[in-house]
Each structure stands twice: as structure tokens, then as C-alpha cells.
Amino acid sequence: MRIEQLEYVQAVTRFGSLRRAAEELHLSQPALSETLRNLERELGVELLDRRRSGARISGQGRELLPHIAQVLEAVDRLKKAADDQHRVSRMVRVGTVNAATAALVLPTIREFRGAYPETQVEVVEAQQAEIHRALREGSFDLGLVNYLRGDDLTPEFHTTELLSGRPVVCMRPDSPLAQLSAIGVEDLLAEPLIVMRSGYVMHRFVNRLLNGRHPLFSYSTDGAEMGKMMVAQGLGVTVLPDYSIIGDPLVHSDSITWRPLDCRVSEVFLVAQQRKSGVPPFAARALHELLVRRAGALDSTAA
Q1: Judging by DSSP bridges, how do beta strands 48-51 and 54-57 pair with one another?
Q2: Is this model's pTM higher than 0.85 or not?
């Protein structure tokens, strides 16, 4: 059964005869008649009353008209929903704490742009609490946030782990710390330290690492990207997840480098989160799939 067959039945009913319906549909009368015969055979019902004077909708056909109308209305609703989904999918909004930007996020957006050139991507830097609030309100389609291993995940979101790594110390190549194979807490305390503001996972990690002690001097900033630029300008050192530094253009240009911490540290991981309620727009699902695929490739390369 095809949708146009049901539409043809409605047309014969509306125009009162097979001939007039064929003219309005720009079909030959024999072709229209044969199409409806196929539908009759499938349903086991004579939809048309065929006489020498012409063919009209039959009594049995009229009894089926309400059901035919319901099917066609359902098809119209489906098309409208698909059109709405398509229009909604012209924009996908992502909130991020700016982790793994160079290695994961930007290459994924570039790949997404190539696959869906008409869809805009809006990337907003925010703290984890702000991202969660925007996800709840529906103003973000995806959230990219960090957790420390052992943290409780927010239960109202679908959470997909993308990358896992270790906190490391980011510094300039000409920093005295770059001569060390690993950085201890005492080494950090002797340097100006660039710390993420309260609300970022790495702020909580550094406070736990220093255990109430204070560095020589400290700055507060938002996000890994600003932290790395401050390091490149010689303002100090910072502690970030390794996946936020490895592969960064500032590393390739020898503006920054990194060393592991010489102490037991928690594993940190980057996740993608979406609301559990409702169906995410197509664009958000497509971007999420690309993030997962690229993150898997990065993990394979690291292994």
C-alpha cells in the first residue's frame, strides 16, 4: 500500500468521478484505475463503483474514507514533525568547560561542519553548574564537562565518557620546572600558580592537592584555554588534564609544555551530557556521535 493510492481515493471522492480525478491528478484514466485496482486487491474491497457511465467511489469505499483520512492526517503530522526537527536542527548549542579543545572539540566541529554545512554550531564557555542549568532549561543541547574519578554523576543527564587522563603541570619550555621529569607539590608552591576559578573541577583538584597550603602567588581564571595562554605569556604555571594540553597548537609551537605530577593524583575525565527528558534534535545527536567516534580514535592513538 502506498500513500498516493489513498490520496487517489480521496481525489475520486472529491471530484465525483474517476475521469475528473485523473484530469486533476494529471494521470491517464487507465493508469489511475489500475492503481486503485491494486489497492482493492490488497484490501479485498471494491473501492469504486465502475459502470459504463464512469467510475465513482463505492459504498464500501465511502465507509473506509474516515480511516483513509486518519492515515493521511497522520502522514501530514509526521511530515510537519520532520520539518520542525529539520528547522530546529539548523542550530546546535554546546556548553563546554574548554577541555580537550584542540585535540577533540575543534576537530569534531570541523568534521560536523563538513557533513552538515547548513547547521550552525554555537560553542559557549561556562562552568559546570552553568552548563547543567542551561541543559535543564534547554538552552544547551550538549554539555562537555570534567569529573574526577569517584565523583557522583548528575543523574538527570545522559552521560557519555569521552576521554580520561591525569592532571599535569603546564609550563613554558624555559621554566625551571621544565628541567624536571615530574613536578612535586613543593615545586608548585614555589611558582606563580594559575588556578581555575571556583566552579571548575581543576579548582577543586588543586585545592585538594595543596591541602590548604598557598603558592608563592596565584591567579584565577576561567577555563583551560585562558590558563594556557597565561602560561605561554610567562605569568606562571597551571594544572590541567593532560588531554587539554597534548596536541595543543601552543605545544606544537613550543610556547608551552607539560610534566606529570610527582604524587598520587586522581584520574580526570571528560564527558558529554544531554538531558534525559525529550528527544534531542538531530544535529545534537549527530554532533554527539562524532564526538564519541573521535574520542575513541584519540584513545586508540594514546594506547
Answers
A1: antiparallel
A2: no
